Amino acid sequence: MFSVLKKLTWFFKEHKKRYMIAISLLIVASFLEVLPPRLLGIVIDDVHQGRLTEDMLANYILLFFGLMVAIYLITYVWMRQLFGGAFIIERTLRSKYMTHLMKMTPTFYEKNKTGDLMAKATNDLKAISLTTGFGVLTLVDATVFLIIILFMMGFLVSWKLTLAAFLPLPIMAWLMKKYGKIIHERFMNAQNAFGDLNDQVLESISGVRVIRAFVKENDDQSRFNSITQNVLDKNIQVAKIDALFEPTIKILVGMSYMIGLGYGAFLVFRNEITLGQLVSFNIYLGMLIWPMFAFGELMNVMQRGNASMDRLNQTFDYEEDVQSELNAYSDFLPETIEIRNLSFQYPSANDQALKNVSVAIPKGFNVGVVGKTGSGKTTLFKQLLREYPIEKNRLLISNIPIEQITLSELKQWIGYVPQDQFLFSKTIRENILFGRPNADEHALQRVMDQASITADIETFAHGMETMVGEKGVSLSGGQKQRIAIARALIKKPEIMLLDDALSAVDAKTESTIVKNIRQERAGKTTFIAAHRMSAVRHADLILVMDEGNVTEAGTHEQLMNQQGWYSEQYTKQQLEKGTEETKEVHTS
Description:
This protein is α/β, with parallel strands linked by helices. The chain has 22 helices and ten strands. Helix 4 packs antiparallel against helix 12, helix 7 (114-156) runs antiparallel to helix 9 (169-206) and helix 7 (114-156) packs antiparallel against helix 13.
């Protein structure tokens, strides 16, 4: 049950002073809280025996008042320290969690659902925070406070009466252990179900346009209802056990009350204890309700925290698939890029996505990468980005194997525009400046012109301050692509990767953007993957890929002379373009 505290030892050591103050003051407050019942018993005995005077009564009242003030001040301090620690660990773990997620490669996200990762960042972190705050409180109250009350009852009232009143305790301890084991298992299932629900909601929101287009709203709603019902059922299973804690404790404490009252009255009649002691004893029995309840809550909170910590550790224990080597190279600029018999297979695939690819690319080359869908163009770019582990000495930059270059250095060199452009739910300005936040207005305007997005932005009511919506939902596909290109250009990367980044723009705009990029990036290396041959026609080197192999390589003129796949596709596309232009002339 307490294994979660062991797993959080690092945090308690880091904030040792805070928790020492909190626990020490909590124990002091516990001592002070048991004094008023004892004083009340003494007052009752004084009244019963006729010894109470006005001066004694005034002193008792002042003492009671002093204890109340002291308990109030001490409680304020320990609560601030203890529950402040709970907020700190939530923030610490959330930051650690996000940092860990940022280091993960696509392999990790293939194995973990987004909804489950979100559930860990919300519900599970809350459960751990509760453990370090309320859990520590219940631990102290269920042990130290309980022992203090037992001492007051056993040594200052009657050990016989105390022993009799505590006969139901072993039953409670057994039941709490049984409940705790069940709630741990059920809480794990409930959290997993909540993760599935998160994943479903994310998928439905992201694909709402497709769902509506196919008139599948009812089907999606039915699927959502089924998952929410599963979450409800799992949480009801947790609640059923959770609901047993308090009634069980109240019944057993009620049994202690009955034993205490009956046997206590018997001891008073035999003059073994006084009436005041019996009153004090019954007040202590009433005070025992919270430590007993705290014991039950302790089991509950610790089991939930332990389950959540286990789920979170599953993520933390996942090591990065790609890491910088010790003594890796940094602080140099990339020159040549050389690929030597590079092969690659995705972890979840059966066939190789790249097969013995070899190519040498001098600095400053514009490289076009073309081929059928699934031919390996994107996979080649992912090797340059080091998204997956790579075979040693197969990809070299400036004659240094890429695995010997620090990841931070490599990522600083590269500007990347993926196939599925992602825009943040911020303004157009903020999205473009994401690549270089300190860029001035002139640089911003320049990359907008180069990406041919300036005219579009001017049509928006708020211009550069237009909110693009979640993932750029308020923009067209072409606008999103051009903003993504501007974001990559403003970074002024040494190596730029455009992965089918012009597919949503027309041929004229594509030609303008490609021309601007060639002029702006003279002397720097640029890769352009495209399905339209016109996008790569002026490249210094064109690679034709098919089923992971480089089947053709050369300039446009060389490939046209080879009369291979490139020549065939280029001729075909030019004929289609001419046909479309003819149709437009006749239509107009």
